[in-house]
Design brief:
Number of domains: 2
Structural class: alpha+beta
Strand order of the largest sheet: 1-10-9-8
Strand content: 15-25%
Distance between the termini: 46 Å
Number of helices: 11
Shape: globular
Oligomer: single chain
Number of strands: 12
Helix content: 10-25%
Largest sheet: 4 strands, mixed
Order of helices and strands: HHHEEEEEHEEHHHEEEHEEHHH
Amino acid sequence: MTDAKLRYKPTRRRFLRDSTLTTIGLMVAACAPGTTGPTGGGTAKKGGEFHGGWPYVLPPAGHWNGYAPNGILTTGIYRHLWLTTLGMYLWADKKFEYWLAESSGYKGENYELKLRSGIKWSDGTPFTAKDVYTTFNVGRLDNFTIWNYIDRMDIVNDQTINFHFTRQSSLAERLLLREPTRPDALYGTYSKKLDDLVKAGKKSTDQEWKDLRTEKDAFRPKEPTSVGPYKIDPATLTESQVTFVKNPGGYAADRVNFDKVVVYQGETNQISPLVLSGDVDYARCRQGHAGRRHPHRAPAAVHRPGALLPLGEGARVPGRAAALRGRARDQQGGVGGHHLRRLWQSAEVHGRLQRPARARLDRVR
C-alpha cells in the first residue's frame, strides 16, 4: 500500500464540501505573531470578540452529545472550536496542517498518527490516543465512512495510534484528520461495549448493535467538554446567542487572539439584520428568498461590508446583495490572515480589498 494511493486528492466536489470547515481558521489562525498588511502594520494584538451566526437547538431538545442529532454547535464550523480535529487541509499548499496531531504517515498497511502532548480537555483530563480511539470506535456505531477502509485500531502509547487499512482510498486520510475529536471520559463506556460486541462477532445488523447505538444517542452530557482553544459557557446559552470563552490547556488556547467568540442563533431571517447593523462578522445564509433554500444554489457567506470571508460551501461569492455579502478585506489583516489568503487563492475568489470597518477587528490586526 503506497502513500500516493492513499493521500487525500482534492477535487472540486471535495473542495465544496470542505471549504466550510476551513472557516475554523477565522478563529484558530488569528494568532500571534501577526502579519502586516500591504500598507504596513505591526504585531497582532489580543482581546476583543468575534461575532458569528449559526443555528442551534435549545434544551431540552438540544444537548451536548457530539454524536446525536440536535447537538448544540456539535455540527457546522463552530464545533471545531471545541471538538477540534487532528488537522486541517491547506488547499494552496496541497497538504494537511496538523492540529491535535503532531505527525502522520503510512507504514505498510498501517496509518500511524502521533499526537501532540500537553493538551488537556476542559475538565482537566489529558488528551491522549484513547480519545482518538473512542472517537472512531463509537463512530462505528454511526457507520463512519472510515470503517469501509480499516478493520481495527491499535493504541501504541498515549500519543500514538495506528489504523490498519484493508482497502485503499485517497479519501481515507481526510476522514481521519478532519473528524472532530470526542473525549473518552464521556464516551469511553460505549466504546468498551462496542469492543465487546465486536469480539462476540456482532455486526451492525444485530439488535445488540442497534440497542447500543440507541443508548449512545440518548446520552446527555451535563456540560460540553472542549479540547480546542475555546469552550462553550453553558450559562450564556439563550435562544438568541451563546458565548465561547478561552479554554486554558486546550489546543492553541495560548495563541488565539479573541477573548470570546459569540455565536448568534438563527437562520437567514434572524441573522441578516445583525449583519446589516454591523453586529456579525461572519455568517452563512441560503441564497434565494429569505428563509427558503434555493434548490440550485449552495449556501453563501453572509458578512458585513468590509469583512468578506468567502468560506461557504460554494467557491464563489455572488456579486449581488453586496450589503449582505460585502467585499474582500485586507487579506493580511485581522482574522486568520494567512489561512484566509490560502483559501482565497485556491478558491479564486475576487473582490475589492477594503479596510476593516469594525473597531474590534482593528484591535487584532
